Fold this protein.
Amino acid sequence: MGPHNNCCGIKVSQSNSGYVKKDAYGKPFNFEELKKDYFMYRTKRGVAVDERRAVALDYEIGISSIGESELIQIAIINFFTGEILVDSLVWPDVKMRYLLSRHLGVT
């Protein structure tokens, strides 16, 4: 059988270099349908105080009580200097079933 990507059951060996092709996800998301199941928050436009040419983003997810992925940690660094810009735990507003902490090192 072999390893599969979590998102769509495609064998890793069938995807290009470990990533999943765009068309593997099926139809595009319908924003109006998403609004029925998810909270939407309007964010204010910010003013950049200190621009970075490039950043690297890493995040960890947990599983909510209804089986949805939820953000539990986010880290952002300056790609060129390695400066840590954000490194923060995030507690979701929904009830969580599994934080995946055993696998991610988030305690």
Q: What stands out?
A: Residues 1-7, 15-22 have pLDDT under 50 and may be disordered. Residues 31-37 form the longest helix (7 residues). Strands lie at 55-64, 69-78, 84-89, 96-98.
